[in-house]
Design brief:
CATH topology of the largest domain: Pnp Oxidase, Chain A
Oligomer: single chain
Radius of gyration: 23 Å
Helix content: 10-25%
Length: 459
């Protein structure tokens, strides 16, 4: 059986908050998503009978491990290995579940879908989970990326074209003065979303084929009804349409993943010609507020690219860009022979594409990099500020970091500074000194587990 959104939700059924009370997608769902610590499903949507909405599919390492069929400590390394496999298998089929309902023309009404308002200052309802499929007019290769999309009317949206790959395709259609066909997929197995969020090089094949490698299965595609594109047959919803050349509309403001409002601007529009969907489609929502799938889907591909690069030069165990660090904090877990290796690793991370890292912290394997309490313990007891902190001024800043200085008139180029923190123990070459940092753990550590003592008493 193919891996889909539904098969994944079934795997998580013991770790889902199911909300049966009526909720308003315009006023309540945004905050409820941020409050939940589990995957969440809303079963009673105000104004949208028979619809279900889900969110928080990949918000932590535990759920990401479920997605990738691995363990939490192996998420980054296993994802890096699977992406390195390259092109997976795809096949074109005649039909699939996403064709159970086909709505065309004036009947293809976006207002019939329960799009949500993410933040109170947003310009309106937004689609954050849409995987936008376009095709290069020169090579014929598809590319899939996720863009925030503001619902403007029954038949069109304005969207922020932030993917370099999709933007390059859009520019080619602009030069041809032709509309760019586009299909927007809503809801599938999270491996599709991870692939869509990956901005690394995959020359010669599409994210469809990347998903084939991530899932290690044949991916079934179907042709769209109104545009020359292929979409996953097992998806929940597909919006078909086109992006006309040289047509821009106001888009924004929008509460972005950095937890600040992005500035409104003139951006491309997407005209909808058809909607295909399952007869009982589940709407996959992706809220941008703290701290949800939004930060993780940006961070996970970023972690993989860093891991792949650093692993070649250092004894690297794991890497973590915590959601609460919104891609600007990176933690590297490594074992070093010398202090110089740690400094080299810090600098390599700070200046690795996409250059968003502002604070990098290096720790040893005995520190749980997913526990901020453990992380600050390492900083408190293993950092001499005079020798273990490096600050570099006058560097390129992350465009979405409001603390950086903008280089006018550009919105993209910013000036910032960076900091590297060596919170590792003394290196291996100084073995006697390293022994001083052996941690004190309680008696029974690793052998006695509280959960085993909390069960019902046997009679």
């Amino acid at each position: 059986m193919a891996n889909t959104l539904r098969t994944y939700l079934k795997e998580l059924e013991d770790n889902i908050n199911i909300i049966q009370r009526e909720v308003d997608p315009l006023t309540q769902i945004g905050d409820l998503c941020s409050q939940s610590k589990k995957t969440i499903i809303f079963e009673n949507i105000k104004g949208y009978p028979a619809w279900k909405i889900c969110d928080l599919l990949v918000r932590d390492r535990k759920t990401q491990a479920k997605v990738l069929k691995t363990t939490p400590d192996k998420v980054v390394s296993d994802l890096a290995r699977k992406i390195a496999k390259g092109k997976g298998a795809v096949t074109l089929v005649d039909t699939g579940p996403v064709k159970e309902k086909i709505i065309k023309g004036k009947e293809a009404d976006l207002t019939k879908i329960p799009f949500c308002v993410h933040s109170p200052g947003d310009a309106g309802p937004y689609l954050g989970s849409g995987m936008c499929i376009v095709k290069d007019p020169e090579t014929g290769i598809h590319n899939v990326a996720m863009h925030r999309m503001q619902i403007k009317s029954k038949d069109h949206m304005a969207f922020h074209l932030n993917s370099p790959h999709n933007a390059a395709v859009y520019l080619k259609y602009q030069k041809l003065n032709k509309s760019m066909p586009m299909a927007v997929v809503i809801g599938h197995h999270p491996c599709y979303e991870i692939a869509a969020a990956y901005s690394g090089n995959h020359e010669g094949f599409s994210e469809h084929e990347m998903v084939g490698s991530l899932l290690d299965e044949m991916i079934s595609l179907v042709k769209c009804e109104t545009v020359d594109l292929e979409v996953p047959a097992e998806a929940e919803i597909v919006l078909e349409g086109e992006v006309p050349p040289n047509v821009l509309e106001d888009e924004g403001p929008f509460g972005e993943g950095m937890l600040y409002y992005s500035q409104p601007g003139k951006r491309p529009i997407f005209k909808v010609h058809a909607i295909t969907m399952r007869h009982d489609a589940i709407f996959r929502h992706l809220n941008a507020t703290p701290f949800t799938d939004h930060q993780c889907l940006i961070g996970l591909p970023f972690e993989v690219r860093l891991f792949t690069q650093l692993k070649k030069a250092f004894n690297l165990h794991d890497i973590y860009a915590p959601p609460w660090g919104v891609m600007m904090i990176v933690i590297i877990q490594m074992t070093a022979q010398t202090e110089q290796q740690v400094r080299d690793a810090l600098l390599a991370t700070l200046f690795s594409p996409p250059f968003s890292s502002k604070i990098v912290i290096a720790v040893d394997e005995d520190i749980d990099i997913y526990d901020s309490q453990d992380l600050f313990y390492a900083i408190a007891t293993r950092v001499n500020p005079a020798t273990d902190i490096v600050i570099i001024d006058g560097t390129s800043g992350f465009p979405m970091d409001p603390s950086t200085k903008q280089i006018y008139p550009s919105e993209i180029f910013r000036v910032s500074s960076k900091i590297g923190i060596d919170a590792t123990k003394a290196p291996l070459m100084r073995g006697e000194e390293r022994k001083r940092f052996e941690r004190v753990n309680p008696k029974g550590w690793g052998r006695s587990f509280l959960k085993d003592f909390l069960g019902k008493l046997e009679h």
